[in-house]
Design brief:
The structure is a single chain. By secondary structure, the protein is an alpha+beta fold. It has a single domain (2-112), classed as Aspartate Aminotransferase, domain 1, CATH 3.90.1150.200. It is built from 5 helices and 5 strands, in the order ααββββααβα. It has helices spanning 5-9, 14-30, 68-73, 75-80, 100-113; strands spanning 35-39, 42-47, 50-57, 61-65, 90-93. The chain has a 5-stranded antiparallel beta sheet. Strand 2 and strand 3 form a beta hairpin. The radius of gyration is 14 Å and the shape is globular.
């Protein structure tokens, strides 16, 4: 996880820093074969060179970016979980619990859907 240290250490709010670190650690522990990279100042996970999911922070939330196709696929579940979303990201408010089951479904979907892809983005 050292690749994410600079990003994590740059989060001023201790509670937010801890939450981001927990989420990134969970993704790493759940998917140890995915590569961890930082691009555009965002921690990301890739599989066979293709983007699977990325994270960023804002004042009121952590943004999760699984690409548009996954947002469309899981829009109902995201709304049920209380996560606002756009066409590219969903937001986990700092005072909300992380729905790890939903996060796993989204990551699994991207891994399976992008299995034959040889580009970074869809």
């Amino acid at each position: 996880m050292a690749v994410f240290d600079e990003f994590i250490n740059g989060i001023d709010n201790g509670e937010q820093r801890e939450k981001v670190e927990q989420v990134l650690s969970w993704v790493h522990d759940t998917y140890p074969d995915m590569e961890r990279v930082v691009k555009w100042n965002q921690p990301m996970f890739t599989d066979h060179g293709t983007y699977i999911i990325g994270f960023s922070v804002a004042k009121k939330h952590m943004s999760v970016a699984p690409e548009n196709k996954a947002i469309t696929e899981f829009s109902g579940a995201l709304e049920e979980a209380g996560y606002a979303h756009t066409s590219q990201i969903f937001r986990i408010p700092w005072d909300s619990e992380v729905d790890y089951d939903l996060l796993k479904k989204i990551i699994d979907f991207n891994i399976e859907d992008k299995a034959g892809l040889d580009t970074f983005w869809r």
